[in-house]
What we know:
Number of helices: 8
Structural class: alpha/beta
CATH topology: TIM Barrel
EC number: 1.3.-.-
Shape: globular
Distance between the termini: 43 Å
Strand content: 15-25%
CATH class: Alpha Beta
Radius of gyration: 18 Å
Number of domains: 1
Strand order of the largest sheet: 3-20-19-14-13-10-9-4
Family: Belongs to the dihydroorotate dehydrogenase family. Type 1 subfamily.
CATH architecture: Alpha-Beta Barrel
Protein name: Dihydroorotate dehydrogenase
Domain Dihydroorotate dehydrogenase catalytic: 12-290
Order of helices and strands: EEEEEEEEHEHEEEHEHEEEEEHEHEHH
GO molecular function, one term: dihydroorotate dehydrogenase activity
Amino acid sequence: MQRKPKETSVNLSVNLGGMAMKNPVTVASGTFGAGMEYHDFVDVAALGAVTTKGVSLNGWEGNASPRIAETASGMLNSIGLQNPGVQHLKDIELPWLAEIGATAMVNVSGHSFDEYVAVIEALEEAPVAAYEVNISCPNVDAGGMTMGCHVPSVEKVVSLCRAATKRPLIVKLTPNVTDITEIAKAAEAAGADGISLINTLLGMAVDARTRRPKLARVVGGYSGPAVKPVALRMVWQVAQAVSVPVLGMGGISTGEDAVEFMLAGATAVAVGTANFVNPTATVDVINGIIDYCESQGVKDVNELIGALQC
């Protein structure tokens, strides 16, 4: 049976950099498709927003298998941003999201600066509430270096995307950097309306019996409950460093996890790996936030944002 959030008198609506959300919960890109597969389990339209899987201009095949490995309290993935391309998203998923009344945020990926711009330009007439710009992609123009690890490339890709749209632009940061606040401030200065973090941590897994790595590409992105303390720390640092809203994610599986991120400074949160374990995780998190607010006498969820006392 399809789960919906419970009724409440608590005001759950938040504004993420110009994108109005009916509650502060979205999904982490790549863990939810565009919601179609989860609609039997949860009312996808009831989420604050649906963040689509990363989309590129033309389809990407993704990486060789094996490309997922379970680990203690988490998982590694090396999917390689496999997707059928922006035209498919425009033809199939976005019309479906609009039809059910969902708020759509499209995660934009690219292997070059021009590709990011081309994807946004292709989506400007589509029913999209905001763009999440994934700057964790390798830049083929710069020898494969990850765009989000280098201030000049962050400034360039964000400013190019900013020039291509007036819609809310949320920039998603990789945690695999020395100083996350430096990158966040560069994105803000280049025109970001919000900052999204964290993307996955770089990790690997080894099979001692075969003496081989568990992923075909050896390393992959680590996510799940184990990354939550790192994600919380980075969200807290970034929320203090920038004036734009923050979308926090990394290991969230309960309403209390979400509240912790909001107290640390997040305006909204994303549920990721938990969706694989529990297909109703998104609504469970919304209901958990409601339970917390009601038990604490919180009438407006916005009261929680940055309310950490330290």
